[in-house]
Amino acid sequence: MHCLQTGRALKGGNLLYSAPTSAGKSLVAEILALKRVLQTKRKAIFILPFVSVAREKMFSLRAMYSGLGLTVGGFMGAQTPPGGFQRVDVAVCTIERANSLLNRLLESDKLSQLAVIVADELHMVGDPSRGCLLEPLLTKVNFYLACKQADPDVDISTQIIGMSATLPNMHVLSKWLEADLYVTDFRPVPLTEYVKVGSSILNDKLEYVRDIEVPGLYDNDNEMIVNLCLETIKQGKSVLIFCPAKSWCEKLATLIGMVMFYGYT
Length: 265
What we know:
By secondary structure, the chain is an alpha/beta fold. Helices cover 37% and strands 18% of the residues. Strand 9 and strand 10 (208-211) form a beta hairpin. Helix 3 packs parallel to helix 4.
C-alpha cells in the first residue's frame, strides 16, 4: 500500500521499487499496469530477463487478467502470439524481444499505444552482456517521451516501473528514469543465512552449527548438494537451487533425479 502511494505512481508517474525477494514487487507492478491499461485503453509491456521467467509471468497474468477481457501474449525466443503486438493488451517479453518491439514503435511514432512498461530485475542494466540492450531501451523511451511532452499539441505518457531486489545505486537510477523511489527491506518470510564449508554448516557469523548428513557420496557432486537436498526433502520441505550456468543446472537436475528415483550412488 505504501509503495502504491509513492509520489505519482497511481497517476502514471514513473516508479523505481527496490525490495527483497517475495516482498510483493510483482503484485505492485501488476496492479499499476492493470490500472493504466483499463483507464487508458492502451497496452502494457512486461520485460523479464529469461525465457523461463517470462513464460511463467505470461501464464500468471493470463490467469489474473483473463476475467477482465484482456489478452496476454508472450514474445520470447521464437514465440510470437497470433496477430502479433496489435492483437494483445499485455505483452510479456524477454529483453531482446522488448527491444525489438519498442524500436518498431519508436520508429513508427506509435509509442502512444503503450500505457506502461514494467522492467523486472532492473539490475540487469549492469549485466555485461544484456545491459547494453536494456539501458538504451529505457533511455530511448525516456528521450522520446521528453520530446513529445515538449510539444503542447501532444498528450502522451508512458509509465515506467522498474523493480529489483539488488540495486546498489538507487538514487542515480531514479534520477535517470525521472522516477519516484521506494525502498524497503520488509520481508514477509524471514530469511536465515547459512554457509556450507566442506561438510560443515556455519551461521552468518561463521560459527559452526552442524554437519551435513552424508549417507553416501555421488559422482560429479563434490559439493554434496544432493545430500543437502535429501536432508530438506526428508523434512517434507522444498528446495530451490541456483547454478551459475545452464549446463551446470541441467547436470545437477539430472543427478538429483537419478538419486531420487533410483537411489543412484
